[in-house]
Amino acid sequence: MLAALGVMVLLAVAIGLVLGWSAIRFKVEGNPLADKIDAILPQTQCGQCGFPGCRPYAEAIAKGEADINQCPPGGEEGVKKLAELLGVEPKPLDEAHGTPKPKSVAFIDENSCIGCTLCIQACPVDAISGAAKQMHTIVASECTGCELCLPPCPVDCITMVPIAEDLPHWKWKHPVVMMKQVDGGRG
């Protein structure tokens, strides 16, 4: 019994050494400036800035290949924070990339959903759950409000629901849950 325990400990140490070595060997060094820029960006992964997500946009800003005013979800506040970080003057938000909107989360009318999976394929953060020819639903805690699921939906069963950003509504609630709370569960 003691010998088996000793062998297991040695095996665990050996595995740890191998995994530790591979983690060091294959570690990818990040760009510290891009990391700071990325931390300021809203992480919607919407692509409105012209890049496929927040990290590629952050890297382009860090390299001087993109302006700091291309992120509508970050709004003027985001532009100011980026300008402060980079030590440059803030610029007005470039409306060619869109305009700021209230923070929102997608909502699928499950009675209208045909289960085509086009919204699942479009979602950059895997916030939609469902299967082919079955209704889909949004995992609200994962949804960034990017709106990329709206255009591919052939039956227009997805809408965006604004999120209140005050203290009583700090956590998003599903509209059906809110209706049940309001009408005592009758609806």
TrEMBL record:
Gene: rsxB
Lineage summary: Bacteria, Pseudomonadati, Pseudomonadota, Betaproteobacteria, Nitrosomonadales
UniProt keyword annotation of Translocase present: yes
InterPro entries xref list: 4Fe-4S_dom (IPR007202), 4Fe4S_Fe-S-bd (IPR017896), 4Fe4S_Fe_S_CS (IPR017900), Elect_transpt_cplx_RnfB/RsxB (IPR010207), RnfB/RsxB_Proteobac (IPR016463), RnfB_subfamily (IPR050294)
Subcellular location, record wording: Cell inner membrane
Protein name, as recorded: Ion-translocating oxidoreductase complex subunit B
Family: Belongs to the 4Fe4S bacterial-type ferredoxin family. RnfB subfamily.
Region called Hydrophobic, residue ranges: 1-23
Cofactor (UniProt): [4Fe-4S] cluster
UniProt: [4Fe-4S] cluster 1 binding residues: C46, C49, C54, C71
Binding site for [4Fe-4S] cluster 3: C123, C143, C146, C149
UniProt keyword list: 4Fe-4S, Cell inner membrane, Cell membrane, Electron transport, Iron, Iron-sulfur, Membrane, Metal-binding, Repeat, Translocase, Transport
Residue ranges constituting the 4Fe-4S ferredoxin-type domain according to the UniProt record: 104-133, 134-163
PANTHER family reported for this sequence: ION-TRANSLOCATING OXIDOREDUCTASE COMPLEX SUBUNIT B, OXIDOREDUCTASE
Positions contributing to [4Fe-4S] cluster 2 binding: C113, C116, C119, C153
Origin superkingdom: Bacteria
Transmembrane domains' residue ranges: none
Cytoplasm keyword on record: no
Cited function: Part of a membrane-bound complex that couples electron transfer with translocation of ions across the membrane.
4Fe-4S domain boundaries: 29-88
Entry EC no(s): 7.-.-.-
Cofactor note as given: Binds 3 [4Fe-4S] clusters.
Subunit-structure text: The complex is composed of six subunits: RnfA, RnfB, RnfC, RnfD, RnfE and RnfG.
